[in-house]
Design brief:
EC number: 6.3.4.15
Helix content: 25-40%
Number of domains: 3
Strand content: 25-35%
Number of helices: 9
Number of strands: 14
CATH class of the largest domain: Alpha Beta
Domain BPL/LPL catalytic: 67-256
Strand order of the largest sheet: 3-4-5-9-8-7-6
Binding site for biotin: 90-92, 114, 118-120, 185
GO molecular function: ATP binding; biotin--[biotin carboxyl-carrier protein] ligase activity; DNA binding; transferase activity
Distance between the termini: 42 Å
Protein name: Bifunctional ligase/repressor BirA
Length: 327
């Protein structure tokens, strides 16, 4: 982390004032270096009060999305290394390039504006500037390639938790990886992998969250929503990124230690909006209707098509819809 980021993190964590001398001693730098860092933070939009003989005090910030801000919010291992872009074609494309170049597990790529984002089956993702989160996390799990699809469900749990912990909104998970509120989509997740038969080179988890959107284009208005529209309040995007990363680390470690989702089944099913509901499974070999019972340890959706007869639905191969709509 840069000196600027370290100072910002310390100021945020302090209840009172921190003297310039304290900061100098803590980081082994000159008073001039501290003053320069404080001035740069002020130019980036942070409110930092400077009082003679007392020191510096962090007052607050608006919805700032910068490398400095994101790194100052991160608490765990995931997202400690951040690459931030004002504009990018796709965070997943960039993260895959970084992974090929040897970037470590937990590296996070973020962008304010994404011009070529994709969802499942190649669908485009609406990406205006200054409103949403577009991020891709690089992972290097020591698991078989056949188990990688489960990471998508781990990510869904992390986003659900991050949103709830920061905003209080109890949204829901539409199997396998959409976060929804009031029947509309808040977040999409796209997981991509580079692997050989014997092992995984890397996994990239792309997450797009509608955060402060006040309205949507006509063509998606019936199926998309944002945290602002659901809560009536603007959300600090960098803080939400950190909340999701913190939850992701916890769930990911549980998944890796078990080798499957057996330790996460109950929490996933509890937050799954289509559990216990009639669903339509859009299968290549023919659509069918059944009752969604929840997931198993592999992340497959269990659908009861008739009493005593349960079919397992594999994520990525089919789509699941509600009988009367998206959920």
């Amino acid at each position: 982390m840069s000196l600027k980021t370290e100072i910002l993190k310390l100021l945020k964590e302090s209840d009172g004032y921190l003297s310039g001398q304290e900061l100098c001693n803590r980081f082994g730098v000159s008073r001039t270096a501290v003053w320069k860092a404080i001035r740069q933070l002020g130019e980036e939009g942070y409110e930092i009060e400077a009082v003679r003989n007392k020191g510096y005090h962090f007052i607050g910030s608006c919805d700032i999305m910068t490398k400095t801000e994101i790194e100052s919010c991160i608490k765990g291992k995931f997202g400690r290394e951040v690459e931030y872009h004002e504009i990018i074609d796709s965070t997943n494309i960039r993260a895959k390039r970084l992974a090929e170049e040897g970037a470590s597990s937990g590296t996070l790529v973020l962008a304010d504006l994404q011009e070529a984002g994709r969802g499942r089956r190649g669908r485009t993702w609406v990406s205006p500037s200054g409103n949403n989160i577009f991020m891709s996390l690089i992972l290097r799990p020591d698991i078989l390639p056949s188990s990688a699809s489960m990471i998508t469900l781990v990510a869904a749990l992390a986003v659900y938790d991050g949103i709830k912990n920061l905003t209080g909104l109890a949204a829901g998970i539409k199997w396998p990886n959409d976060i929804v509120a009031n029947g509309k989509k808040l977040c999409g997740i796209l997981t991509e992998m580079s692997a050989e038969l014997e092992g995984i080179h890397y996994v990239v988890v792309g997450i797009g969250i509608n955060v402060n959107m006040e309205e949507f284009p006509e063509e998606v208005r019936q199926t998309a929503t944002s945290l602002f529209l659901e809560t009536g309040e603007k959300v600090g995007r960098s803080r939400l990124v950190a909340a999701v990363m913190e939850a992701f680390e916890q769930y990911y470690e549980e998944f890796i230690s078990q080798g499957d989702l057996s330790g996460l089944i109950s929490v996933y099913n509890k937050n799954m909006v289509n559990a216990g509901k009639e669903v339509r499974v859009l299968d290549r070999s023919g659509d069918y209707i059944g009752k969604a019972l929840g997931i198993n340890e592999k992340g497959e959706l269990l659908v009861e098509v008739e009493p005593g007869k349960v079919r397992r639905v594999i994520s990525g191969e089919v789509s699941v819809r509600g009988i009367y709509g998206y959920v």
